Amino acid sequence: QVQLVESGGGLVQAGGSLRLSCATSGRTFSMGWFRQAPGKEREFVAYIIRSGGAADYAGSVKGRFTVSVDNANNTLYLQMNSLKPEDTAVYYCAAGATVIPANREHDYSYWGQGTQVTVSS
Predict the structure, then answer these.
(1) Which of 5, 19, 80, 109 is deepest in the core (most CB within 10 A)?
(2) Tens-place pLDDT, residues 51-78
(3) Is 98 helix (H, G, I), strand (E, B) or coil?
């Protein structure tokens, strides 16, 4: 069983930055970030292959968000720059996907509890 614990969410003004972290107890092929805004379905944000660092992003965040992983410390990161009000959501860390691309919820076996990100205009 892999455990995931997110941190780093908060309130930020539009144009600002936040960095989310996800500490994991296990080592899996890939890890990802998803988000769920109020009244909407959970959506893919980014994923990364732990060996090699290949990554992919949703079009809405490409160029603004960067996903990375510190394999030595078993921690996944999401650096979010140029934040917009529409980025407001609960952000979830996920792990356990074994396919590429890993951009669907059902690709993942393990999920964190989520961390709230609120971007004010």
Answers:
(1) 80
(2) 888 999 999 999 999 999 999 999 999 9
(3) coil
What's the pLDDT at 26? 83
- List Cβ neighbours of 3 (8 Å cut-off, separation of 6 or more): 24, 25, 26, 110
Residues (pLDDT < 50) of the chain are: none
Q: How many CA atoms lie within 13 A of 78 on its CB side?
A: 33
Task: Check if the beta carbon of residue 45 is closer than 8 Å to that of residue 31.
Answer: no
Which amino acid, one-letter code, is at 3? Answer: Q
The torsion of the CA quartet 109, 25, 8, 38, rounded to 10 degrees, works out to 20
Structure tokens at 79: 């650096």
